[in-house]
Prior knowledge:
By secondary structure, the protein is α+β, with helices and mostly antiparallel strands. The longest helix is centred in the N-terminal third of the chain and has 17 residues, at 54-70. It is elongated and about 120 Å long.
Amino acid sequence: MDARPWLALLTGVMLVSAELCLPDGIPRTSREYIQDPLNSPEGSAIRMVVYDWAAAEVATELTAILLSEVLGYHVEVSSERTTGSVASALQLAGCVSFDCSEKQPRSHVAMDTWVAGMPGELADFERTHPELAAKSMGSMGYSGQDTLYVKGSVRDEAYYTSGLALEFYKSYNTSLHEPSKFFSKVSDLDKADFVPCNSSAHEFTNDVQMRFYGQWTGDWEGVLETETGYIANCSDGHFWVSPACRHNVSECIPIVAAGFGWNVYVFMQWSTLFSMPTAIGIPKGEEQRRFAVENFRTLFHWWSPDAAFTHLDASMLVFPQHNRREWEAGWYRTAYPENQIIKLVAGQLTGMAPRVTRFLENLELYLDDVQGLLLELEAGATARAASCNWVRAQRSVWTGWIPVDTQCLPGEGGHLTDRSAAVGCSACHPGNFSEAFRDGQGATYVCRPCPAGSFENAFGKTHCVDCDVGTFTEGTGQAHCTRCGLGRYANSTGMTHCHACGIDHWTTSQRVPSEGLEKWLEVDGATSESYCTCVEGWFLNKGTCERCLRGSSCIGSEIRLLPGFHSTLEDPRKGCA
Ligand SMILES: *[C@@H]1O[C@H](CO)[C@@H](O)[C@H](O)[C@H]1NC(C)=O
Ligand SMILES: *[C@@H]1O[C@H](CO)[C@@H](O)[C@H](O)[C@H]1NC(C)=O
Ligand SMILES: *[C@@H]1O[C@H](CO)[C@@H](O)[C@H](O)[C@H]1NC(C)=O
Ligand SMILES: *[C@@H]1O[C@H](CO)[C@@H](O)[C@H](O)[C@H]1NC(C)=O
Ligand SMILES: *[C@@H]1O[C@H](CO)[C@@H](O)[C@H](O)[C@H]1NC(C)=O
Ligand SMILES: *[C@@H]1O[C@H](CO)[C@@H](O)[C@H](O)[C@H]1NC(C)=O
């Protein structure tokens, strides 16, 4: 067997991914790094988190192409898949766990982040580490939907033969309509494809939710009390049957759940509270779920954006508007909440790369865009290929997201006061700050050196900080303040020089007790005149330092007679043996 064709194919794949997507894209060799001192003092690529769902993969690839080929940054897309916003918040903080005692390289961007509400752990983290908390760059442009769906063919047949709108929950009321005649029967489905209702890892055995069901519907026959808590009461062991068709299961509409029975308890309450004749089953796996949905006429749990069932032209079922307070109490007689889907970035990214965050704020995809991309994935395209096609075809859409090069943001500047000569904006370097600046073309920002007496040690700041007491900066544009030398002090903040203690033989020192003896330690960075003392061997007399006398010791500005010597009180200099 000749392995070479395979080799050629592999090389081809690698070449394609290293190649530019846009014919006029910025090549790798001309790209910049962002300043992230936490990752590397030399600069870091923009590191992107990827969630383990298809929409996140395409949104990430698409963003990566624009960040690298249009904005000109080095970008690294993680090869690992992240499960949700709790995990990504840690990656964006550069922490391994919420106490942040262990660090990992910091990621910068997480596209397609679903936030249905903030998990408690995240809220705590924001309180304890506000500087590390991730920031939202706003909506992706579409929101997430999660609900029951009906296939297009079923919906159309019902509407055109009897005017029944199966998209609407009230059409399922068995007192008025007979919706089940448009659907398959439970007996048509293969029971072996569905998990038993008593299986412990699934939502039919969620004690809390099954209790809520009984409590809010009063249908205690629909649940069973067991040793391990309440479980769904399924007469045939696999399908839970709603009161509206419990008398005759062949009048039930099958509902195909997803995952481990995600939210079946919501569908149970809907069915009972709205007199819907349904029989809910949880497929054993993704393959069984797809098979049941595609081959039978059922209601099914699905969400958007997702392309798995796009070809079925399905419609969402409309329920009364979401009521958050009721849902919090486990009472589901309204629709799902709308999930926000946002762009999440590292808290410090705005300071490190303001252009990147401005671009991300502008980036907005429509549901149609994502659905189109997801359909390409379903048809076998890679996320990179699908995104690249979109980027090539939709130039007029994304050019609106690219920040104007000479319109600088707070924290950055064109480094030049003349806009025509400015070469794009980038974060101001340490020693500089970004100052608002207005010219004929409007407001922008420029980087200016910090004034003497102040400093700035971070990138992308809008102001400089006054030097602390004990320190100073003499010149402008300093990233750090210098400590006052010996014999000098700075007794206020923002000093451009240190005061001298005196003319000659002065130092700054501090008395330290050491094994009962008194010792003086010279200190720099003195914050007040009280540190001023004469150097050892000199003592203070009427404001000047004088040389120590024979037979005395001089330290800390004081003079002491050595044993065996004495002096007169009036003039300590007249000591004699
Ligand atoms: C579920 O029910 C079946 C039949 O009623 C029984 O054989 C099985 O042991 C039960 N399984 C669990 C986990 O309770
Ligand atoms: C469970 O459902 C069956 C059939 O619908 C019913 O006969 C039975 O009474 C129910 N069990 C309980 C505990 O309500
Ligand atoms: C149950 O419903 C089916 C379908 O509507 C019907 O044909 C059948 O006669 C019903 N069975 C009983 C016992 O009512
Ligand atoms: C179903 O229709 C009947 C008859 O019109 C009505 O009394 C009942 O309130 C309806 N049920 C729901 C949940 O809308
Ligand atoms: C201030 O910014 C300029 C231009 O970015 C840079 O050359 C200079 O080094 C910066 N100052 C300091 C102290 O880094
Ligand atoms: C700091 O020291 C100088 C010189 O000794 C003195 O004039 C000034 O009042 C002091 N300032 C403060 C805030 O103590």
